[in-house]
């Protein structure tokens, strides 16, 4: 049997390596139109920002090494032009010689990855020397060379996803003033808007300009220098810039499918089964060109990440050589460092959960990542649970440390369909330098379980919605007088927790009541007192006044 793989980055090389581990019999041939194989796209921003000292470290395996190690024939600088499924052949252009030839296969794996989305405004300037994508090693080399030679002072980043955020951080750290322009109303579209606002505040704290609901409408172009000197945005504002990073996302690279009957899925990526095969039995697809699906809803999902690409490649290589591995879907877990903040998410966000038909409980849990007396720093966990089953559906976390540990625990728990109670009962490692006695994960489970069964929560958004609808709500601030006078929820009555029992007769037990403190714990204590004294409906404001004031700030912006 002869296996041909088109593409040699994370997914393609994983197919080849796993197939060869399973058998020495089959011929394995890899074609790639680039010069490099198995390189780290995710590491490119850190090379630009000088955290990675050498570009060579992003390409740990060259074609010669891989070919010898795995007995795989690799042809770089070879562009596969067309697939002929009925003949089981491909047309290949040798980019070095210009010669086109045909090759045949028994099994074909498409691992062509994704291509950058180019805003219409920039399509007329494909050769501008100061406009860059961040997709491959050559892009990295070009950006690095430009920065060293031209010494730009200002950069415009178009797009606010992972690459946009990472490039903003890295360019700022090497002394370049950065503006981030995003067509949507928030950065990082996979977060809920209130969590994305926390990211925006961190960017602004680091003197990165953030322009939301904004697109590039016009480009000023200097023919003599092949450089974009300035742009005009959709609001009529002009921005001078020395360099532009296009980080507007990617789309599956499916041009090679033209003329074939290979099925494209709902997301625009190639539709595959659990062994990564397409609708044509002898053709598979893996990595950023292939469609995934949600572990929670079972619905198609497209989240191009190196980790997923490697997993798909291994499964395909195994399936092609008689193995039993099958693909189980993903949660869409992601993490990024943005200056002093780490941002991570997994599973469904609030909007996605509601759109999927779940009735949900939403918790904002604000806790230190480790003991306060050892320098614990605050993290915010927004967790989503299904009210009907108590199953954890998703989480988003921001903080300066300890975020990676918590998101991975939550991703694991969600994968195995853990409920809120299951989270509380996890036996997590504890010592003061690493955690608190009640880890933020345990507290998340406890608070969500309480909310689903006994002590309901109310989010700032829901509170404001109900207030604006004219509903009569009784809101009690349980904090100190100093805290209350500094900032409070609109219309709140100030009754410190220590005075609540003796002043309870002043309150109406039949009115829907909301208790709150600064972050949530004391508000919960007040909620219990009122419930135990016969109050009909009592909510605790999730995340307390701190979360509420941040919500108001977001609304005002």
If you had to describe this structure to a student in words, what would you say it looks like?
This protein is an alpha/beta fold. The chain has four domains: 2-41 and 54-113 and 251-320, FAD/NAD(P)-binding domain (3-Layer(bba) Sandwich), CATH 3.50.50.60; 120-248, FAD/NAD(P)-binding domain (3-Layer(bba) Sandwich); 340-453, FAD/NAD(P)-binding domain, CATH 3.50.50.60; 457-556, Rhodanese-like domain (Oxidized Rhodanese, domain 1). 28% of the residues lie in helices and 25% in strands. It contains 15 helices and 30 strands. A hairpin with a 4-residue loop joins strand 13 and strand 14 (227-233). Helix 1 packs parallel to helix 7 (306-320). The mean pLDDT is 96.
Mean pLDDT: 96
Apparent shape? globular
Helix count, DSSP H or I runs of 4 or more residues: 15
CATH architecture of the largest domain: 3-Layer(bba) Sandwich
Radius of gyration: 27 Å
How many structural domains in the coordinates? 4
Largest beta-sheet characterization: 5 strands, parallel
- SSE-based structural type: alpha/beta
> CATH superfamily assignment of the largest domain?
FAD/NAD(P)-binding domain
Say how many strands there are. 30
Offer a concise description of the structure.
With 557 residues, this protein is of the alpha/beta class. The chain is 28% helix and 25% strand. The protein folds into four domains: 2-41 and 54-113 and 251-320, FAD/NAD(P)-binding domain (3-Layer(bba) Sandwich); 120-248, FAD/NAD(P)-binding domain (3-Layer(bba) Sandwich), CATH 3.50.50.60; 340-453, FAD/NAD(P)-binding domain (3-Layer(bba) Sandwich), CATH 3.50.50.60; 457-556, Oxidized Rhodanese, domain 1 (3-Layer(aba) Sandwich), CATH 3.40.250.10.
